[in-house]
Specification:
This protein is α+β, with helices and mostly antiparallel strands. It is 31% helix and 21% strand.
């Protein structure tokens, strides 16, 4: 009789442990995609992702050797009258990117297997977009999305908000983005 109760208690305990583990896994909060790797990421909402880790070193060497192209383009608001691009100059952002990358210049010749492209979208926050329902989604002026490509392969992508409608804080955000990409190799202890 005691064996029956003991067996029942053991089975009940196992079912509780397994049930608790399943419940914990189902209700686990997903990790936030927000980046806080660098202190400048905390100044604004920033998301970053390394898509092709094996190509990071080639990307960095090519950027440091100054052998890359930049494509900056505007994504203007569609539901409200676009105002931001009366103040924000795409050519100025392009020049700013190149100037910031020059700070990392090394006199090296990169082993070039593919062209490197920095594709940059400057997005104007469309506050009248019917898909934006929360006050929080209307707080920022826009965001920058940088996609770093080696050939046709996306290697690294980073997005960061800027708050000033005239884009006064864009140079600071560009500086943070360039610092972010250039410090990718330091994550693995390599430079």
């Amino acid at each position: 009789m005691i064996k029956k109760y003991f067996s029942f208690i053991v089975v009940f305990a196992i079912v509780l442990v397994i049930g608790n583990e399943i419940y914990t896994q189902i209700n686990k909060k997903p990790k936030s995609a927000k980046s806080t790797r660098l202190s400048c990421h905390k100044d604004s909402v920033t998301f970053e992702k390394v898509i092709k880790p094996k190509l990071v070193q080639e990307l960095l060497q090519t950027l440091k050797s100054q052998d890359y192209k930049v494509n900056v383009w505007a994504d203007k608001s569609k539901y409200m009258t676009s105002v931001m691009f009366n103040f924000v100059d795409i050519k100025k952002i392009d020049e700013d990117i190149k100037t910031k990358i020059k700070n990392y210049k090394l006199d090296i010749e990169a082993k070039k297997t593919s062209d490197v492209l920095i594709d940059v979208m400057v997005y104007e926050n469309d506050k009248k977009d019917p898909g934006k329902k929360t006050k929080r989604s209307k707080l920022y002026a826009g965001y920058l999305v940088f996609t770093f490509k080696v050939g046709i392969k996306k290697v690294y992508k980073i997005q960061t908000d800027f708050m000033d409608l005239k884009g006064e804080d864009i140079p600071k955000r560009v500086s943070c983005i360039i610092n972010s990409v250039m410090t990718l190799g330091e994550q693995n202890g390599t430079k």
